[in-house]
Amino acid sequence: MDFTARIVNGSLRYRAAKAVSSLFRFSPQVFCDDDASPSFRVSMNERLRQHPAFLSLPPLPLPAQLDSAAINFLRENSLSTPKSIEARAQLLADYLWSRPLPSEEKIIRRKLDTELNPVDIEEVRTADPGLADALAYHHVEELVNGSARNVRNLKAEAIEEWKSLTYSGHNCELYLVARLAPNFASTCRALYEIRKRCPKFIPRNLFDFGSGLGTVTWAANTVWPVGCVKEHYMVEPSADMTHMSEFMFQKNFAVHSSETVFPGIYLRRFLPSTKQTYDLVVSAYSMIELPGTNERRRVLSNLWDRTAGFLVLIEQGTKAGFSAIMEARDWLMEVGGDDIHIFAPCPHKKVCGKKDAVCNTIVRFYQFGLTQDKNEPQNELLSYLIVSRGDWRRYQVPVVPADSQFLPRVVSFKTGHDTNVTHDICLPSGSIERTVFPKKQTDKSLYFFLRHAKAGDIVPCEPVDCDLTEDNADQNDGEETEVAT
């Protein structure tokens, strides 16, 4: 049954966990009083931000040094005006947002009955080497009962569906303008969740696959104090992108300077052959750039083998980005065995309840100061996955026994009106539940938390009766109401 077809009364199923109740030690009458004093509101909001289940962040600006470095790089290297660069960068941003996940097998299957003009496969390789490499991973002849010419035509048709983007020269400048700030904010949001929920985890070294502009390194040194991460190993195949990030890592903005902003900066073009492990391994906005399913799996296996602590995957919160995350999740569950534990955002290892939709989180950011236009906060949607090698609860304070928490997750943006708060929540059972929390019936502390919660936040609640199964709960009279039409 579609979870959107009904609304469950959350006040009958859940109560505030002890952690959230103890955080707000005020009388119930003042929790949600609209006439509360400003000083009281500030105090409550501060306490809310301190709660380990509240993961939303205020709008994030770029670090001052990174902002200045990006502007200086464009001033020294770009021949275009700021307005012109911003306009073309927006076109690139729109393209990246609408880009599908490279899945050549699906393309070929969909085109089996299509009449195509003959094109030499060598022309495909010349036009887009990445696509030709992607198609090489699939035995297309097994999918097509036809001549070699048909196979060649189907491969050529795939180029109309997806093109690999070459990050060189002017494209790098446009990517800098379009993606520097949102990439930084999204990575901060993912890493911030690790630091907040697992304060004992302090990474000593970082491996960044597809490092691009170096935003993962900047974010890691923003979330954790500078100096905690003593080694930053970055892999980026684009020489121009590496040159740009290298410029921004220099204290005096000169590529040939030996002094960098952070210690232990190592930039490489290819994955190293050594099997050194790293406390923190990150791939941000890189899976969708890889040319095929097999290539993505090969890279994921390599990254997992290098993971000693946490592996973090981040993509844009589009259908393609979420599909890449789900594909990675399924593959890691297959190859990781008992050693892999999902940290976020899923509270379970079962089939995703939103696999046919999109599960994403929002983060707000300030664009860097390329122009003098009024800079308002902007929104970025991201889909992400964080897994750990071994049980991540060992990094919590105090250490929490395995399987001791009931931690649903908000997976939609708040809906509803008046005094009722409605959220879609992902349960540890793997199901999605659209739940309404009436103000008068819900625990006051839990209601206060949920009124401010956003997609991606954890719901600090526990079942009203821990022995009551979900199936039995569904049978309780008056617990469900049909969605109003």
What does this structure look like?
- This protein has 485 residues and is of the alpha/beta class.
- It has 3 domains: 3-53 and 407-482, no CATH class; 64-80 and 170-395, Vaccinia Virus protein VP39 (Rossmann fold, 3-Layer(aba) Sandwich); 103-161, no CATH class.
- Helices cover 38% and strands 16% of the residues.
- Strands 3, 4, 5, 6, 7, 8, 9 and 10 form an 8-stranded mixed β-sheet that branches. Strands 11-12-13-1-15 form a 5-stranded mixed β-sheet. It has a two-stranded antiparallel ribbon with strand order 2-14.
Layout of secondary structure:
Blueprint: E1 6-9, H1 10-13, E2 14-16, H2 18-23, H3 38-50, H4 64-77, H5 82-98, H6 104-110, H7 121-127, H8 129-135, H9 148-161, H10 170-197, E3 205-209, H11 215-223, E4 231-235, H12 239-249, E5 265-268, E6 278-284, H13 293-305, E7 307-316, H14 319-336, E8 340-344, E9 361-365, E10 378-389, E11 409-410, E12 421-426, E13 432-437, H15 444-452, E14 461-463, H16 470-474, E15 480-482
Parallel strand pairs: 1-13, 3-4, 3-6, 4-5, 6-7
Antiparallel strand pairs: 1-15, 2-14, 7-10, 8-10, 9-10, 11-12, 12-13
Helix pairs in contact: 4-12, 5-10, 7-8, 10-11, 13-14
Q: Cα-atom Rg, whole angstroms?
A: 24 Å
Q: Got a strand count?
A: 15
- CATH level-four homologous superfamily name of the largest domain: Vaccinia Virus protein VP39
Strand content: 15-25%
- Tally of discrete structural domains: 3
Instruction: Average the pLDDT over all residues and give the rounded result.
Output: 79
